[in-house]
Amino acid sequence: MSTTTKNTLAxxxxxxxxxxxxxxxxxxxxxxxxxxxxxVVKAALHKLAAEIELATPAxxxxxxxxxxxxxxxxxxxxxxxxxxxxxxxxxxxxRKLVGIIPWQALATSAPQQ
Length: 113
Known about the structure:
Blueprint: E1 3-6, E2 11-18, E3 24-31, H1 38-55, E4 63-68, E5 72-78, H2 84-100
Antiparallel strand pairs: 1-2, 2-3, 3-5, 4-5
């Protein structure tokens, strides 16, 4: 199941991805409008990854990773044990974060010179 929210800056989708090994990967995908600077996309992914790291309980052993494409990318959890319970905890945390992060702050860019 995925959750999608949209604003003028980016579309955010929380979903359960799958690794190349077939294990679950809870993720938040970001898609920006065409023409969005690569640096804006990278900065948004890094800001989101930092928010996820800060929200992760100390008892969790997953790794927070990013992948970027043209005007999109994702932040995903590489689960330590890849159990259904760990995947569910990761998904619950990501869904909660989607509701509390000020998303407009993720897509701010520096002034052009």
